[in-house]
Amino acid sequence: MKNANTVRSMLGGPALILLIGALVPLLLTSGFHLRLVSIICIYTILCTGFNLLYGYAGQISMGQQGFFALGAYGFTLLMATAGWSFSAALPAALVICAVVALLIGIPLLRLRSHYLAMATLCFGLVFAGVASRWIEFTGGTAGMMVPSLKFAGHIVSRTELYYALLLLMVLVLLLQNFIVSTHMGRALMSLRGDETAAQSLGVNVTAWKLRIFVLSAVLAGLAGIASALVSRQVNPSFSEFPILVSILTIAVVGGLGTRYGALLGACVVVIAPQGLTAFGESETVIYGVCLLLFLMFMPHGLSGLFPTLFRRLRRKAVAPAIGAAQAGEAKP
Amino acid sequence: MNAFKQQPGAAAGEVMLDIKGATMRFGGLVAVNDVSLQVCKGQVYGLLGPNGAGKSTLFNLVTGVLVPTAGQIGFARQDVSTLALHRRSALGMARTFQIVRVFHGMSVLDNVLMGFHHTLIDGLLPSMFMAGRVLRRERQLREEGMALLAFVGLAARAEDRVEHLPHGQLRLLEIARALASGPTLLLLDEPAAGLNDLETRNLGQLLRKLNSEGLSIVLVEHNIDFMMGLCHRLAVLDHGSKIAEGTPQQIQVDENVIEAYLGRRASHA
């Protein structure tokens, strides 16, 4: 019975998201709004990888923005400079991300907590430095233009690109749900707990850390490619602090170690600043204060809020019934 | 008492765990000094000794947390002295810990399911390619995990978070998790530590039941009464060396043991 629930909970959420996401363009009036929802998809893909790595497996990486940029640059260089087709450049860029993650992961994953955070942060910083200084190859701080996609002579429109991103995001969420609701999720969660106990139960701790690090890097690279296509350019800002700050903010706001925290967090982080533009100069301050309040009062993010609300409502509904039952028992 | 009757038969079984001259040095300290012993199939084998005698170190050599400085640990007809920790459960070795080590943030059932890990598809990509098989197996696992929880008496708490379980139940959970890996040898590091009398008695019954179904058990324990009633064979360690080995009756009258351990305890009391 439990398993039927497992499969249903694996498919249900993504199906609902696909349905809502498919209707969204019909409600939007401007291209700018379409761009915002595309960015939500991109951030969700990026942060789903981070969530698997940090939220579930407890291995922090501050270098996700490096892989984000690596994917974008790899894809753009292969497509624009080397003249590869889209269908060759996309997987090739992802393979580059995977290989680089593997190479730096082998030495780095021996580190823990803040040491791992610092080491991975260095990767992101080094990447940003190289991207802005190796001018003849990367175009320096100006970056490079990304040609618009064409399939059989048809130029892919922004709306079509959004639908592709939506589908991609739903697939990534399905993959995440599959991982976390099977033995893979348990193995990941055992890493953040007790490594000796995990090893004694046959979990190859080193291999699992590496696997999830590579997967999160590939997802970051995928998000980077999507971002390059949506903004039609790449530049060194792809691997700079604002991206990292967005990842961490989304993680905190949405809730780490939850299935839809990345999506909820991405919605807030992308949409909230738009609503705050009315405040003019004090926008950043208000945004910061809101984040602080989030941290203080919702340690589990938005994902933690909904179950708590639900439980409270149910308790209120059940409490009178129990009270009545106890009164009835007490009589005889 | 039933245990004693089984003893001659059990002793004649094949050797499961064969420790030959195991030595462990930490700098100048010799924690385990040239210890040899054999555990046969179907036996309950106890390791006794005062604090600091090297019991836990020997236990860690067998389970692979430490690699011996010298000597050999043979298990399942092969030398496992340097075998990686995560490869041992597939050979049929399962353990519990002196200080309970469960996985927080997970349900009781999920903790038990961790025990099945070595029997499942290893890796992300292979699991994705065989997604159907993974999901079908997951359903079976839940049933098998529930059966194990029922066996140790924790079925009602399957969906609770482990953080909500009292210490005694966590010990049982660890045993259920160890059993999930389908072991031929169960290694228990002070399983009765922190348990009250009733819980200790229940634990003894549980272990006797497991042993009667053919599972070999090695235990390290302080509780002498518990050990005397349960073990077929005992080894006593003192200052890292084995000073006696035999049946509980032999150990109780052994002069070295009385001097090193029982005597000292008696004078304390």
TrEMBL record, chain A:
Taxonomy, superkingdom: Bacteria
Give the UniProt keywords, A-Z: Cell membrane, Membrane, Transmembrane, Transmembrane helix
Localization of this protein: Cell inner membrane
Bilayer topology reads: Multi-pass membrane protein
Which positions, given as ranges, span the membrane? 7-28, 34-54, 66-86, 92-109, 116-135, 161-180, 210-230, 236-253, 260-279, 285-306
For whether the record's keyword set contains Protein biosynthesis, the answer is: no
| Primary residence | membrane
Q: Which PANTHER family did the record assign?
A: HIGH-AFFINITY BRANCHED-CHAIN AMINO ACID TRANSPORT PROTEIN BRAE, HIGH-AFFINITY BRANCHED-CHAIN AMINO ACID TRANSPORT SYSTEM PERMEASE
Name of this protein: Branched-chain amino acid ABC transporter permease
From what organism does this protein derive? Pseudomonas typographi
Give the organism's phylogenetic lineage.
Bacteria, Pseudomonadati, Pseudomonadota, Gammaproteobacteria, Pseudomonadales
